[in-house]
Amino acid sequence: MAFRWKNDLRDRDVTDQALWMNRRQIMGGLAGMGLAGAATGARAETPEPNTWEDITSYNNFYEFGTGKSDPLNNAGAMTIEPWSVRIDGLVDRPGDYAFDRIMEEMTIEERLYRFRCVEAWSMVVPWNGFELADLLELAGVQSGAKYVAFETYLNRDEMPGVRFPVLDWPYVEGLRLDEALHPLTIMATGIYGRDIPKQNGAPLRLVVPWKYGFKSIKSVVRITLTDTQPPTSWNKANAREYGFYSNVNPNVDHPRWSQASERRIGGGLFASREPTLMFNGYEDEVASLYAGMDLQENF
Ligand SMILES: Nc1nc2c(c(=O)[nH]1)N[C@H]1C(S)=C(S)[C@@H](COP(=O)(O)O)O[C@H]1N2
Ligand SMILES: [Mo]
Questions:
Q1: Band of residue 41 on the pLDDT scale cut at 50, 70, 90
Q2: pLDDT tens digits, residue range 149-182?
Q3: How far apart are CA 98 and CA 75, in angstroms?
Q4: Among 13, 16, 155, 191, fewest CB within 10 Å belongs to which?
């Protein structure tokens, strides 16, 4: 296990951001930052991260309500200990993987990623997490697998939002296997070196930085390898508006609004909108996954 500074920092009584900036300067010269370091370094501007407060108080987690502050106010009721992830379907070693064991086996890295919601707001988040590919390797992906399906925890007593049929609960998502195995795809377990808060999807959630935020499913309890494209919550709710791929694309508008630009959370009331980047700025890394595909059709 390489680079696991998360645990050293957990209990320190310091300001998150000050600590993070400090740590980042120390880590700056070191190798082992992984592809994200290379990816963000390759671009002219490395965006500054949003504050801990922005990232943890402006959320979408509809199981706790549809308001942006509902997750912060309501997610405290969610039981996250003990936690395990059932990995099943086309794998050699199906079973319930305890969260603690996953953390033992995985290498935790820091990944500073742009995050772009389909609603046209964005943030920059310093995640801590591990590559999904490493977890799938632990379970042993079989040769017939073509897709990965994900499911969120569901508890009607703890989640006031699931009384409303906004979505068909539990929240489900899916990726093509090559997308799931891409080194940019992570399971996030922390933010700013602290355990990921419940409102952000504790204790582990998917993060796919080149796709709209709703693909990044929270509080994952099940991962299933399949040979058929799995159903996804927003696509089931409105297939015309939300496709299976949902790659960030400034040239393909949502039927009800433009996707050409975005509002960076924390920019203040008078901040100008920023242009949305193809594949959210990760075009060099992921465009080859979609070579020859019509991205208007496969939105
Ligand atoms: N289970 C679940 N996962 C979810 C959602 C949700 O409502 N339920 N919302 C999605 C949407 S629309 C976005 S933009 C991101 C928001 O992540 P954040 O609150 O950490 O910024 O989570 C995604 N994952
Ligand atoms: Mo979103």
A1: very low
A2: 999 999 999 999 999 999 999 999 999 999 999 9
A3: 21
A4: 13
Q: Whole-model pTM?
A: 0.89
Residue 117 CA, closest ligand 1 atom number: 14
Ligand 1 atom 8: the closest Cα is on which residue? 61
How is the chain classified by DSSP, letter by letter? -----HHHHTT--S-HHHHHHHHHHHHHT-S--HHHHHHHHHSS--PPPPPHHHHHHS---GGG-SSTTHHHHHGGG---SS-EEEEEESBSS-EEEEHHHHHHHSPPEEEEEEEE-TTSEEEEEEEEEEEHHHHHHHH-B-TT--EEEEEE---TTT-GGGGSTTS-SSPEEEEEHHHHHSTT-EEEEEETTEEPPGGGTSS-EEE-TTB-GGGS--SEEEEEEESSPPP-HHHHH-TTT--SS-B--TTS-BTTB--SEEEETTS-TTPPPEEPPGGGGTHHHHGGGGTT--TTT--
Contact 56, 115 (CB under 8 A): no
Q: Which residue has 């402006």 as its token pair? A: 58
- 220: β partners: 152
Query: From the CB of 122, is ligand 1 less than 6 Å away?
Result: no
Question: Closest Cα to atom 16, ligand 1: which residue?
Answer: 60
User: Which architecture, in CATH terms, is 81-290?
Assistant: Alpha-Beta Complex (3.90)
User: Can you tell me the mean pLDDT for 24-30?
Assistant: 50
Choose one of 55, 58, 61, 241 to mutate for the ligand 1 pocket test, by most ligand atoms within 8 angstroms of C-beta.
61
- Amino acid identity of residue 234, one-letter, is W
Which atom of ligand 1 is closest in space to residue 218's alpha carbon?
A: 3
